[in-house]
Write a structure and sequence with these properties.
- By secondary structure, the chain is an alpha/beta fold.
- It has helices at 11-21, 26-33, 37-45, 52-61, 66-70, 134-142, 155-161, 191-196, 210-218, 266-271, 284-296, 313-322, 332-337, 362-372, 375-381, and strands at 82-83, 99-104, 107-112, 128-130, 168-170, 177-181, 202-206, 224-230, 241-255, 327-331, 341-355, 394-396.
- Strands 6, 7, 8, 9, 10, 11 and 12 form a seven-stranded mixed β-sheet that branches.
- Helix 1 packs antiparallel against helix 14, helix 2 crosses helix 3 and helix 2 (26-33) crosses helix 4 (52-61).
- The chain is globular and about 70 Å long.
- The relative contact order is 0.15.
């Protein structure tokens, strides 16, 4: 039986997240609940514990429940079933931990989430298709922007100055949809609690590095940007923006298992003639690699594969695991998911930057409810290498 890791939750932040999701100030909530604003402030800061009467009043005012606002998480329910497939030779000595479940003819069937099976490489269903006449305008807008547009470091600034209009045909109906930009593959875990939310909310996750994620947020293209930074760096305070914790992990150098013990840093990669899979410009992983090269006095031209660009941690992990590359900078959860060797370089925290001006919308309300709920931190804690403790913590206001 799988034992889920413990996850810690600060009830004061859960109350504040729920209040923000409803678009209430402390004064608004105090009036609706019939208590003082000072009481709200004291509860949210953790100085005071609410009485049952106050907790019930707050739950009614927020259209929530005392259990959701202040209760302890229920124990996970045990499940008995059988594996649909055994891990193959390509999985090495990796044992399945996370599973997908399906009921087939009354039996519970478990599918192991290992390596490439831990993320979905299939086609994403589209909601619309471009009109034939819209392609010409799009090509004109992207002309001169460099390979794939955004690889030009000035492309983001130009995109803010000149928005591109398109015409499309809707081919599928959709619920309200939350748009989030960032490179953490765990952002895909938002899909579950968003679907279970009332009303149900869809998810558009745009995988990209820190720089582009902030550019998309500043241009009004997404509801939230997921930014990860070193734990030693301070949260960047931005007027009108809430920063809410998502998860923490370590980032560093991952190598193929066959190189165990022979690669400790980038010098070993270069001296051994090994090839790396690199991340795109503007990503934290690429910045870390460049910092290491600069510190060691190594020119990028000396590193085989430096000019490659993969737009995600799981993609570079898959490249190393499949033998297309020997090493890459990635998060520890990505390395563990593919059974790679890992040398940590820094501890990091991921935070969601959310404009307060968008908090009245159903999409951000669902996001805040997910961050303050129980399903998301459990999903994060079930992934090796993730620490779910920051999930739902208010980091900056």
């Amino acid at each position: 039986m799988i034992r889920l890791p413990e996850t810690r939750r600060r009830p004061d932040d859960r109350l504040r997240l729920t209040r923000l999701a409803r678009g209430h100030s402390q004064g608004d909530l105090a009036r609706a609940a019939g208590i003082t604003r000072q009481a709200i402030s004291g509860i949210e800061s953790g100085r005071w514990s609410p009485s049952l009467e106050v907790a019930l009043s707050l739950a009614r005012a927020l259209d929530s429940s005392v259990e959701d606002l202040f209760g302890e998480a229920a124990d996970a329910q045990p499940v008995t079933g059988r594996l649909a497939v055994r891990p193959g030779r390509q999985h090495g000595d990796m044992a399945p931990k996370r599973l997908l479940l399906s009921e087939v003819a009354g039996a519970t069937i478990a599918f192991p989430l290992l390596r490439d099976g831990s993320f979905v490489p299939g086609f994403v269903p589209a909601l619309a298709v471009m009109r034939d006449t819209a392609g010409d305008a799009l090509h004109e807008a992207s002309a001169g922007a460099g390979a794939e547009g955004e690889r030009d470091p000035t492309a983001g600034k130009r995109s803010r100055n000149r928005q591109t209009s398109i015409e499309a045909l809707r081919i599928a109906e959709a619920a309200p949809t939350l748009a989030v930009a960032g490179c953490d593959p765990a952002l895909a875990l938002l899909q579950g609690p968003l679907q279970h939310h009332s009303p149900s909310v869809g998810l558009v996750w745009w995988p990209c590095g820190n720089t582009m994620a902030m550019e998309l947020l500043d241009s009004g293209a997404v509801h939230a940007a997921a930014i990860h930074r070193s734990l030693d760096a301070l949260t960047r305070h931005r007027p009108g923006v809430e920063a809410v914790g998502f998860a923490s992990w370590r980032e560093g150098l991952a190598t193929a298992p066959r190189l165990r013990g022979s690669v400790k840093d980038v010098r070993d990669v270069v001296s051994g003639g090994f090839r790396i899979a690199n991340r795109e410009q503007g990503s934290e992983a690429r910045r870390l690699l460049d910092d290491q090269l600069d510190r060691l006095g190594i020119a990028p031209s000396e590193v085989a594969g430096y000019d490659t660009e993969c737009t995600g941690h799981l993609l570079v992990a898959s490249a190393v695991a499949s033998g297309l590359a020997d090493a890459a900078v990635m998060t520890e959860p990505a390395a563990l998911a593919f059974g790679l060797e890992f040398v940590p370089w820094q501890e990091e925290i991921s935070e969601l930057h959310i404009p307060r001006s968008l908090m009245s919308g159903v999409e951000v309300r669902a996001l805040l409810d997910a961050l303050g709920g129980r399903e998301l931190p459990r999903q994060l804690a079930a992934l090796e290498g993730y620490d779910a403790e920051p999930c739902g913590r208010i980091l900056a206001a």
